[in-house]
Amino acid sequence: MLILFLIMPALARADCVVLVHGLARSDASLLVMEEALAYSGYQVVNVSYPSTREPLEKLVLHGLPEAVESCGEQKVHFVTHSMGGILV
Length: 88
Known about the structure:
The protein is an alpha/beta fold. It has helices spanning 2-12, 31-39, 56-59, 64-70, 83-87; strands at residues 16-20, 43-47, 76-80. The chain starts with a helix and ends with a helix.
């Protein structure tokens, strides 16, 4: 059992986490989470988008495709808040 505990974090660290903030926020609102995940060994992409200046149809294309692409072949996880979840 101890062996699994030691192996699992190493597997998780190969993953990429994309953070997507909510309405009227910026990537700074998820900065603490970004730093904690990076400290734990994850590749983190913290997407910023102009949530109050563009319609949803345009916001979907504002940074999300590039964020996923920057993860390469790694497994991608999304952490979203509010409107960020709608965009994903």
